[in-house]
Design goal:
The complex is a heterodimer of chains A (315) and B (680). In chain A, 36% of the residues lie in helices and 11% in strands. A five-stranded antiparallel beta sheet of chain A has the order 4-3-2-1-5, with no helix packed on it. By secondary structure, chain A is an alpha+beta fold. Chain A contains eleven helices and five strands; from the N terminus they run αααααααααβββββαα. Chain B has 22 helices and two strands. A two-stranded antiparallel ribbon of chain B has the order 1-2. In chain B, α8 packs antiparallel against α10, α10 packs across α11 and α19 packs antiparallel against α20. The radius of gyration of chain B is 29 Å and the shape is globular. Classes of the chains: A alpha+beta (315), B mainly alpha (680). The interface between A and B is large, with 56 and 74 residues.
Chain lengths: 315, 680
Amino acid sequence: MRSFLNAVVFTLFVVGFFAYVCMYVTGLSGGGDGGAVTGVSPEAGEKIFWGEGQCHTCHSIGTSGSATRGPNQEGLVSRAEEKAKERGLSSGLEYMVEAIVDPDKFVAEGYDKIMPKVYDPPIMLGREKILAVLSFLQTLGGEPDIDAVMKFKDKIPEASKKKIIPWVPPIEVEPKEGELVFFDETRDVSCSKCHVLSGKGSKVGPELTGIGAVQTPQYLIESILKPSEVIVKGFETMYLITTDGMAYNGIIQSQSEEEVVLLVDEEGEIVEYVFYPDEIEQMQKQDISMMPGNFSELLTTKEFYGVISFLLSQK
Amino acid sequence: MNTIKLFVSSTPKNLHLRIAFTLFLVIFFIALASSTSMAQENAETAEVAETVETEETVETAEPEAPAEPYEVVDYRNFFGLDGRLAIWIIAQLHLMFAAFVLGVPIFAVIVEIIGAKSGDIRFDNLAREFTKLLSAAFATTASLGGLMAFALYGLYPGFMRYMTDVFHPFMFIYAICFFGEAFCLYGYYYSWDLLAKKGKWFHITLGIMLNLFGTALMLLANSWATFMMAPGGINMETGTVQSLYHAFYNFLWMPLNIHRLIANVAFGGFVVGAYAAVKFMGARSHEEKAHYDWMGYIGNFVGLGALIPLPFAGYYLGREIYSASPVMGNIMMGGAFSWTFIIQAILIGMLFIGGNYYLWNGMSRIKGAERYTPYIKYINIIIIFCFAVWLTPHNLPLSGEERALIGEQYHPFSKFFGVMAAKNAVVNLLILSTFFSFLLYRRANKGETMPFSSHGKSAKVALIITAGLTILYLAWYALGLRGIELEENIRQYLSPLITCLVIQIIAIVITILLTFANRGKFAQAFLFGVTTITSVMYMAYYGFVVMEKANLVLRYLSVAQVSIVISCLIVNTIIDIFLFKNAKEVGGIQWGKIPLRAQYALLLLCVAIVTLMGLMGFIRSGLRMNWHIYGFMQDTSAGAFTPSIAYMGWTVSLIVIIFLALLAFVFWLAGLGEKKKQHS
């Protein structure tokens, strides 16, 4: 019996070590920094390039990224101009559009035909997102020109959504009920206390106007249930210690050489604190979101899926 | 265990009955309570519907409204638990038991054949003990399989409807094969004594049939899993089945079959090794210790033997995943799953270090092994170095200050270890070192060898055939490389690979000639040396060259590298067998006289491979991301997101603990009959 117990203890130790390594690696690799930057802009395109567009898994840019399966995109604009001339296209941008819409038409020397059509499954980037990526690619050795990018709008196919079964909540819910929950400020914790939607609410967290057009149900579910998994850039929690030893956790509303304005959640109320540089001992970004992580307890299943349905209807 | 015995023997019979009856009542009431609560939920729903209906009737005073239409549901939860998590746990447990049930009979039959050929009863007893464990685990595997099928049909009815539509003819074949496996297994186990003397070969045939049915079951189930990853034979827009053959024999089917077949043997070997280790630790008599020491050694031998080619099979599977879908391949190695391969490297490192550590400890029970102990520290250094390189990620997560200090995103030195060129080289070196370790173990108690010429013509023929086939393979691959159509400026980078393959062919020929000239040991060392220089040293350097100038060539380089290493392992094994045949023994092996710490190494190997299987199950299945059938049917359930590595870690840990606990219980049950026999 003793030898068996020794074996059990040893086994648990090894399994515990494995779990510890997994937790450590999660801390090391991080959960990404999300991205709610939307529209056709280089910033949104950059986000997509390094995120859901999965471009970075084949292309690196200069010393950013490590992929070698596709060409390094540093200085892409001048190369695209040369290729456009060779192929009789009107501009480098048209060449880039062709490379995305029909990647097999021309394959860069030394590389294989592995680039997928990003508007098809499984990536399925929407037209707007592809245009955003194009505007980002314009910045790689050139200046972005959104108007020029938008002229190619009709050449870019829409994502093959017809193949996708639309998401349905597991229980029957009404988006209107979700809207009531979203704006119900009588609750201890309310969405509109921190998020602006169609001009209503407070701007502590990211604005959610039009969120249904750019985010998936899975993303929204995860953002509510596990808010620290993906924190939108610019909304990370800041840990601030003053020279007299007081510690504050909050979101920076504004920061200048003269002052730092921090929004701090105090028992459900958002309080604004102003700090002058000589009062600040230390400031550090945190990996934990300020958004409460216990919505699974605060909302009923019906309310939760109601909010998700309501957000998805915001297109 | 003593406490249990004492309790069992000293408790009155009535008390046993009372305990049994109480247990029955507890289970019965739990079942009743859960069904009542479910019924209550249904009743409440019905009541609400009825109230609404009544209200409507009162308001409108119209004839009774028609009954609600039947609603088709695509997803359900498992009593409040996310369906995906429930399926994950159940499927992984089933796969682990299945791996054991499919892996063990392969070597059980081989051990039995060795016993029948050599007339050594110990081998026969060992094969029988393996089968005893097998028969106990078989019923659990089947039960878990049934539970998995129910869970899938219950929780994912929409998805399973489609899978059934596509694969229903194969489901019947699966059932037939299952009957075949059950009959062969129980026939094989229960007819052991009956066929011991006159029908031994018939008994062995039953064992082979058991393996064939088991493998057929695995092949059938694999096709469903790989269809989900790389669907074939269907219209990707409508889902119409166009070719059942291509749906079954889809792109990833064969790579997964090969990988799982080898992995199952390694899994079975290490689990059996751990069983022997626990038995050894609890053994009282020297005979018992000697028996379980030997069993542990065989388990480790089988596990390590299968582990050596496993990275190659894994590489093949990974490469084919890339070919099937570059997007999926990129998610695997460069995207969301890239960090899980660092964890995989840790577990594989544990397996190689643990396996070698056990071998070195095992040498302490062999007289004469002390001649080779000085080499162990060097092998150890090489293995730890390889492990460290394998573990190094390419992208070190650096802070802004660290990046500013270094001046670039990568560490100036360690960045070279994070890429495939370095990793391929160290994996091959790791395998060569482990093989070398095993060769040392084999010759630990051997002294003067017989000249090769004394083994007669059969030895020469065996060596020529083995070397000939190996050379043929290398030549075939080299010719294939010559024929690859690539742009000229890329194609030129293939030439060094062809040269390396030709060098290896020449080295094999020289090795054979040296062996024929009774210089076998030198021949082995020569082949080891040439292989290490070409496949590890030169190809590691050349890997960096092609990564920079002709990335396309890297995939051919990896295959050439692996082929050279495998050719060395095969030829050196055959030489070793004949070289030490009838060699003078320096001292016998003292079975049972192995340090206790070696048993912990066996336990480590078992836990590591079970955990590894859990991790790889997560990766293989998770690669589909939010797709049931990649690119065709999306998973639109609420739980369709890739969990974090920490979440995966906890879930896999839970699965490992449940599996090992169930296994321990099942083995304990299997041992009860044995105890009864001993008692009587």
